[in-house]
UniProtKB/TrEMBL annotation:
<dbReference type="GO" id="GO:0005634">
    <property type="term" value="C:nucleus"/>
</dbReference>
<comment type="subunit">
    <text>Component of the Smc5-Smc6 complex.</text>
</comment>
<keyword id="KW-0833">Ubl conjugation pathway</keyword>
<comment type="function">
    <text>Acts in a DNA repair pathway for removal of UV-induced DNA damage that is distinct from classical nucleotide excision repair and in repair of ionizing radiation damage. Functions in homologous recombination repair of DNA double strand breaks and in recovery of stalled replication forks.</text>
</comment>
<dbReference type="InterPro" id="IPR014857">
    <property type="entry name" value="Nse1_RING_C4HC3-type"/>
</dbReference>
<keyword id="KW-0863">Zinc-finger</keyword>
<keyword id="KW-0227">DNA damage</keyword>
<dbReference type="Pfam" id="PF08746">
    <property type="entry name" value="zf-RING-like"/>
</dbReference>
<dbReference type="GO" id="GO:0008270">
    <property type="term" value="F:zinc ion binding"/>
</dbReference>
<dbReference type="GO" id="GO:0061630">
    <property type="term" value="F:ubiquitin protein ligase activity"/>
</dbReference>
<dbReference type="InterPro" id="IPR036388">
    <property type="entry name" value="WH-like_DNA-bd_sf"/>
</dbReference>
<protein>
    <recommendedName>
        <fullName>Non-structural maintenance of chromosomes element 1 homolog</fullName>
        <ecNumber>2.3.2.27</ecNumber>
    </recommendedName>
</protein>
<keyword id="KW-0234">DNA repair</keyword>
<keyword id="KW-0539">Nucleus</keyword>
<dbReference type="GO" id="GO:0000724">
    <property type="term" value="P:double-strand break repair via homologous recombination"/>
</dbReference>
<feature type="domain" description="RING-type">
    <location>
        <begin position="198"/>
        <end position="240"/>
    </location>
</feature>
<dbReference type="InterPro" id="IPR001841">
    <property type="entry name" value="Znf_RING"/>
</dbReference>
Length: 298
């Protein structure tokens, strides 16, 4: 780049490459780290040619986009998968009243149905924060104003496409990272007693480790537990019971050992992280970036 170019670099940091990247993020809402990296490379090459754009890391590139998003109360944020630590980039809406925003996306019947599902997942009898698919369809049909089961099924499919819910291989609906991040305030306000917060990072946790003392409500993300336990000698900070890292909760536990086994095998075969594999439906889209046509049409 010439000297004249670098004089205006600050004002011109937000380029067409950033714009193109953001338009694709808005279409996809949730992307893997790999897909995000690929999209960034393609956007820069498409706008700046094969010699590449300004010397900027992916983190700086996204920071520039976040400056533009700030007045809109939106942010591209990295979220770690609860089990595998895989990174997901999510376009997050930061405005306070999250459920009110949903009213612009869904009809009143759909919104009530969504709230019903959230309530069932959060209050799941076994504490695994998930709901079997047959139960979900039957209950939703019974409790909501959908005309028939097909309509009910279509709505569940849409919640997965919109990245609020994920369906595990064993057929359990659970909250997807988008719901955990964007509906955080709603979940904490509405389900203060039922929702679990990681005792270490204070974020919501729906899959992780729990204290073996059933009277104690200490829970950890797997990723938070590891480093903590190495330092604090396997003791629960609250009840002082010895911590057993094999006492888990979440959708993988609800699926039972058989599903767990096949999930591990799939993980090994595909070389993917288990958090990604455990959510097969959104996975197909999460693994890819926008198709060539989508990319050029935005
Ligand atoms: Zn944590
Ligand atoms: Zn405890």
């Amino acid at each position: 780049m010439s000297d004249a170019g670098s004089l205006t670099a600050t004002e011109e940091r937000y380029t067409d490459a950033h714009r193109l990247f953001l338009q694709n993020c808005a279409l996809q809402r949730v992307m893997t780290q790999e897909a995000t990296h690929d999209l960034w490379q393609r956007a820069v090459t498409l706008i700046h040619g094969s010699e590449g754009g300004p010397d900027e890391s992916l983190e700086d590139f996204i920071a520039t986009i976040n400056e533009e998003l700030d007045p809109l109360h939106m942010e591209l944020r990295v979220v770690l998968d609860e089990i595998s630590d895989a990174q997901w980039w999510i376009l997050v809406n930061l405005k306070g009243d999250e459920i009110a925003q949903l009213a612009t996306l869904y009809t009143p019947t759909e919104l009530e149905a969504f709230k019903y599902l959230i309530q069932r997942i959060v209050n799941s009898d076994d504490g695994n924060f998930c709901l079997g698919s047959t139960e979900a369809i039957n209950e939703l049909y019974r409790e909501s104003n959908f005309n028939n089961k097909l309509q009910t099924q279509d709505f569940l499919k849409r919640l997965i496409e919109d990245r609020w819910l994920a369906l595990s291989r064993g057929g359990y609906y659970h909250l997807a990272p988008r719901a955990i991040v964007e509906l955080q305030t709603y979940l904490k306000d509405e389900y203060d007693d039922a929702i679990a917060e990681c005792s270490l990072c204070k974020e919501i946790v729906t899959k992780g480790e729990r204290c073996r003392n059933e009277e104690c409500d200490t829970v950890y993300h797997r990723r938070c537990a590891g480093p903590y336990i190495r330092v604090h000698h396997n003791q629960c900070p609250s009840c002082k019971t010895d911590w057993d890292r094999a006492i888990l909760f979440g959708v993988n536990v609800a699926e039972g050992p058989q599903q767990e086994q096949s999930r591990i095998q799939v993980t090994r075969r595909s070389g993917r992280t288990d958090g990604v594999v455990s959510a097969p439906s959104p996975e197909a889209q999460l693994d890819g970036t926008a198709s060539e046509e989508e990319f050029e049409n935005v």
